[in-house]
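User: Second chain of the day. Same drill as before.
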Amino acid sequence: QILFLKKNFEEIAKIDEPSNTILESIIIILDQIKNLSKMIDKYNNTINNDDERLEQLNQKILSLNNLARKYNSNENTLKEILKDKIYKLEKLINKKEKILEYNGAIKKYTYKYHNIANDISNIRIKESLILEKKITEHLKNLGMNDCEFKIDISTDKNIISKNGYDKVSFLIKTNKKSKLLPLTEIASGGELSRLSLVIQLVTRSNDDCETMIFDEIDTGIGGSTAEILGKHLASLSIKTQVLCVTHLSQIAAKAENHYLVIKDKYNSSTNVLYLDKDARVYELARMIGGIELTEKAIQFAKELLN
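Assistant: Same format as last time:
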């Protein structure tokens, strides 16, 4: 249209000189349009028409719209949701790093555990042969002549525990015809008491034990065997308090303190009476000679105490 106007005003200017002013303005505008067209072309050439990038942007817009619908939010709250998710993700990453750190520590200490457990297992096997021999000899001295004591060690290297990967069982047979069986299946109360005493004496593991109680430990023994048993109890009492219920004067005479247990059959009650030195002599004499006390029994009781 401007070109059309220019052409018309060129014709008009031939017959109307004042119209030249309009024609000049038209020419100026045409020059400006040409310059503007060049600038637009130049700018258009600088634009990168990347269809792939455009598709990515469209997909991003689509994803954002889907997220907005999912979280029932707008673009502003989506930003807050994004911050929250980033925070939680960072926490998870930190936890993962901690897990990796802990897994490394577990691997390190598992390796260390197996080295120590293996050493302990070898020591147990070696020392158990010595220990079971000593215990058997002591039990024979305490009247269990046909007894055999055995320490059974079962090793499973897949086990991880504070005690290593050995399962230790104590086996015993109390006569020649019986088989080696677990203590609880074969040993009587008195035998168990004597065995407990012997184990404590041999291993000296009573350092952390404040009080030890023995009942029926004198069952089936007497004479020199009772004397030996009394000495063992006295030796054990050096490191810990020992309470022993006994009917044998040889054992009772070895105690530092003597208490008499009296049962009242009428009132169904039991009394415990502390015995001084004189009362102790008479109680030991009674244990030796029976109901009627003799001078010989009293003299023997004094000899036992001395």
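The chain has a mean pLDDT of 85.

User: Great, on to the next one.
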